[in-house]
Amino acid sequence: xxxxxxxxxxxxxxxxxxxxxxxxxxxxxxxxxxxxxxxxxxxxxxxxxxxxxxxxxxxxxxxxxxxxxxxxxxxxxxxxxxxxxxxxxxxxxxxxxxxxxxxxxxxxxxxxxxxxxxxxxxxxxxxxxxxxxxxxxxxxxx
Length: 142
Known about the structure:
The chain has helices spanning 2-25, 38-62, 67-88, 98-141. By secondary structure, it is mostly helical. Helix 1 packs antiparallel against helix 2 (38-62). The protein has one domain.
């Protein structure tokens, strides 16, 4: 149970972090008049992904039977969070712009870290279920 709260809280914290980075902390272009720039879209999409990751963390704590699926969902959220500024939506093409030189790398690294934490948790859950299965098999044979 402690592990569930720990990973759930970690997912919530990472989700909030991605949202704060996207909506508040990182510099993204504000656009030119009515023109919406790719970096603005990246900011919005990654911010929403952060909210979704936080919701997965809440669900991870609240629904223990769904922990494996929610761990996989956090991995997917981290991967998407990293891919949005790099591939899916992108940022300004100008390398001197803050969204290109600062915001994109920070969101990519944060997304990769989220995915790695999710992978580590999935491995933990897999090992725990294997150990539990072996324990059940041993008790059934005696």
